Amino acid sequence: MNKILGQSPQITHLLRTIPMIATSDVSVLIYGETGTGKELFAHALHSESGRKAESLTIINCAALQLENIEADLFGRCNAEGEIEHRGRILAADGGTIFLDEVNALPLTIQAKVLRFLEAGECQLQGSHKLHTTDVRILAATSADLQKEVTEGRFRADLFYRLQVVPIVLPTLKERSDDINLLLHHFGREFAENNAVVRYSKATEHCLLTYAWPGNIRELISFCQRMALLNPGKLLQPEDLPTEMMPEHAASQHAFILPPTGINLAQVELDLIEQALEMAAGNRSKAARLLGISRDTLLYRMQKYSL
Q1: Of 70, 143, 161, 47, which Cα lies nearest the Cα of 100?
Q2: What is the pLDDT of residue 220?
Q3: Cβ neighbourhood burial of 162 (10 Å; 0-12, 13-18, 19+)
Q4: CATH superfamily, domain at 264-303
Q5: Out of 3.30.450.20, 1.10.8.60, 3.40.50.720, 3.40.50.300, which CATH number does the structure's domain 9-168 have?
Q6: Closest by alpha carbon to 155, among 108, 202, 194, 193?
Q7: What distance in Å separates the CA atoms of residue 182 and residue 150, rounded to the nearest whole number?
Q8: What is residue 121's three-state secondary structure?
Q9: Quick check: helix, strand or coil at residue 218?
Q10: DSSP result, 228-286
Q11: What is the pTM of this model?
């Protein structure tokens, strides 16, 4: 069974909310960069819901073939109006549909998905009859869906209908408290019958300060590679991939620490206040300016009593 791992404030907050969200049939829109675990959270919501006895149908909207997308999702009838192909949404009756990368849906199909969300009705190709089905919709995106709406690539009405409950997944860099836990968990998992890979303190420091642009998916691949190539070894910084080496990381620093040092908490507080001022109090915009999720910003604002 898939399990969400983490003890950082961001993850523990999300884990507390999952049971509450799961018990309802409202639509959920999961935001997160690639590799942050959007599908894992969809599985968690489904497995704690009243629909867990039925299937979770995962649809990657970016991989759908445009010429067959309507029939693929909803279905098709023959000349007599009989169903000859039951689409994925119709076939998922009683269960849950997870629309991954929902922003990739063409506008014409977005209108039909909206109709389904509002009334539970599907109109199949070749038929004017409406078919009903009982399905819960979860959706996910790594795009800025509000921007997609503003620029006319995503329907505003569908956006608001999907986002009854929004969930924002933090990047791995934002939940750095979990990196060691994840490294050791997947290290043990991929070791199988071999000795587990270990990390020196210097190596742990490199991994904790690395940006992890591919998020948890990148960390899992890294652990798998290390388990395969270095079973039981105590890894040193020079054993790491080039991009994780301290020399490479140092060349990427956006801020150089002055010799006199800084008050880190004060710098963080100042940056949050500046971002909120620049965003005219809009917390979502301020979070984007700081390169963090809205939930992380709210957590840090609470930390500083802002």
Answers
A1: 143
A2: 96
A3: buried
A4: Homeodomain-like (1.10.10.60)
A5: 3.40.50.300
A6: 108
A7: 38
A8: strand
A9: helix
A10: HHSTT-EE-GGGS-GGGSHHHHHHT-SSPPPTT---HHHHHHHHHHHHHHHTTT-HHHH
A11: 0.77
DSSP 136: E
Tell me: the pLDDT tens digits for 182-237? 999 999 999 988 999 999 999 998 999 898 999 999 999 999 999 999 999 999 99
The residue ranges of every structural domain in the chain are: 9-168, 176-251, 264-303
Assess contact for 105 and 117: CB atoms under 8 A.
Answer: no
From the list 166, 209, 180, 226, the residue with the least C-alpha distance to 6 is 180
Residue type (1 letter), 154: F
Q: Does residue 4 contact residue 15 with C-beta atoms inside 8 Å?
A: yes
- The domain made up of 176-251 has a fold known as Helicase, Ruva Protein; domain 3 (1.10.8)
Q: Which residues lie below 8 Å from residue 302, measured CB to CB, with a gap of 6+?
A: none
Query: How does 97-131 read in b/e, with b if 16+ C-beta sit within 10 Å?
Result: bbbbbbbbbeeebbebbbbbbeeeebbbebbeeeb
Q: How far is CA 79 from the centre of its chain?
A: 42
| Residues in a beta bridge with 136 | 96
Helix H or strand E segment including 165:
strand 165-168
Given a cut of 80, is residue 150 above it in pLDDT?
yes
